[in-house]
Write a structure and sequence with these properties.
elongated; 18 helices; 417 residues; mainly alpha
């Protein structure tokens, strides 16, 4: 009899256990179904909102007006094609050779970012080339070009300028010859390179090339000003402005690159003004060049390119989210294991995409359309509150937006300064 009750009790508990497990499975399946449905609806509503606000979803509508090669600084032989990649190899083909040649124009002893030393038009501190000889960060470079602690300002600047010219191997001369071309556009443009491809996965090898040129020209321009070489200083500043014009409307990375290039140009211009180096013709050229800059149009086009890229590349974006390539750094900070991503409902990824589109429209493109870049700056606090509110409510819906949209707004801050 005792054995019978034990069997009865065991069978009863097994049934209870099976019922509990079955209930949990039903709840789990229901949870995934509901979250996937909510995500799908949120994504459809986000795309509909973009259409309702008149935002384009057509990549071709954002294409820049093509510039004939003969009028295009970005189409000079040295720069033409530097946006291209051959068979996935950045070093292959003619484009790879050009990028390597520009990279080789840097001083072999290193590079100097004068802004890292606190000298710029913004701080009002002039660059002290002599101090670089004893500064712990740059002695190898300055010693390598023969600058001594006892050198005066002009002598140190002349040595640095001479070393730059010698190392450039004709790169600077080719860039200077292109200044006669009035317009400046990458050839082919990033827009053309990305057409028909996954917009969020394309390689942009020219960005590093532009960084190399910015540091080279910034260093050369300051050295030219301090050595009294007006022509070299003007050329450096003018080339930087031409490069910024070419890169500025090519998405978020392009605009950030252009801002760095313009900052370097302004530093050269300012130091030249302090030294009373410029002639009237130089100042007229600068006035015209700065007058052509339309930061609001550049900003809006860059943001819209990013928005269309996200909408068009949504399937690829989900694969990156699932693999952890986009979210892993953020999740690691929050102590979430990478493998946990594979358990997340698909709807959470749709929710993230939808939040990016919604925040981009509400806090970036619409304020910029109605009140310009300052409209985006003014709404920053609102974006911060929305981010905190959504995170507090349900963090899985806002990972991507919280890491992507605020930097886009910071671009507006930098452009407004």
């Amino acid at each position: 009899m005792r054995g019978f009750f034990r069997c009865l009790l065991g069978a009863r508990w097994r049934r209870v256990l099976l019922l509990v497990i079955g209930g949990l499975v039903v709840l789990l399946v229901g949870f995934y179904q509901v979250e996937n449905w909510r995500g799908r609806v949120a994504w459809e509503e986000a795309v509909a909102m973009v259409e309702a606000h008149g935002e384009t979803q057509d990549w071709d509508e954002l294409a820049p007006e093509p510039v004939p090669d003969e009028d295009n600084f970005g189409a000079i032989p040295l720069l033409k094609g530097i946006t291209e990649v051959v068979d996935g190899d950045e070093e292959a083909g003619e484009a790879g050779v050009k990028r390597e040649r520009i990279r080789g124009a840097r001083l072999e002893h290193g590079r100097i970012n004068f802004r890292s030393l606190g000298s710029s038009a913004g701080t009002g501190i002039l660059t002290d080339l002599v101090r670089l000889r004893s500064d712990l960060s740059w002695p190898a470079l300055m010693e390598g070009i023969g600058v001594d602690v006892g050198d005066g300002k002009i002598e140190a600047a002349t040595k640095l300028l001479s070393a730059i010219e010698e190392q450039s191997d004709g790169v600077l001369e080719e860039l200077s010859e292109g200044l006669e071309r009035r317009e400046s556009q990458l050839s082919p443009s990033v827009h053309q390179v990305a057409k028909g491809r996954n917009k969020l996965a394309i390689v942009l090898p020219h960005v590093n090339t532009m960084t190399d040129l910015t540091e080279l020209l910034g260093m050369r321009g300051i050295a030219a000003v301090q050595s009294g070489d007006r022509e070299a200083a003007f050329e450096s500043c003018a080339i930087l402005l031409k490069l910024a014009e070419a890169t500025g409307g090519e998405g978020a990375i392009g605009m950030l690159t252009a801002q760095t290039q313009r900052s370097a140009a302004v530093d050269i211009l300012w130091e030249g003004l302090v030294d009373q180096l410029w002639e009237e013709s130089d100042l007229l050229w600068y006035s015209e060049a700065f007058g052509r800059i339309d930061l609001e149009e550049e900003y809006l086009r860059s943001i819209r390119l990013e928005l269309v890229a996200i909408i068009e590349s949504s399937d690829w974006l989900e694969s990156q989210l699932v693999s952890g390539l986009l979210l892993w750094p953020m999740l690691e900070l929050n102590g979430i294991p990478e493998r946990a991503l594979r358990l997340f409902p698909r709807g959470w990824f749709d929710q993230n995409r939808a939040t990016v589109v919604r925040w981009t429209t509400d806090y970036l493109t619409q304020p910029a359309d109605s009140a310009g870049i300052m409209g985006v700056v003014a709404i920053e606090d609102k974006l911060g509150k929305a981010s905190l509110r959504d995170h507090a409510r349900f963090a899985p819906y806002t990972w991507l937006a919280a890491s992507w949209v605020p930097p886009m707004q910071n671009m507006a801050w930098q452009a407004a300064i």
